[in-house]
Amino acid sequence: LNQEGAQKVLGTTQLLKDGRYLVSLFDNTNASTVPHELAHIFRRYLDGGLLSAAEEWAGVAPGGKWSVDAEEKFARGFERYLREGKAPTPGLESVFAQFKQWLIKIYEKITGSEIQVDSNKARPIFDKMLGGDADLVSREAAKPETTLRATPQEKSEAAPPPATPVGVVAR
Question: What is the pLDDT of residue 156?
Answer without folding.
Answer: 53
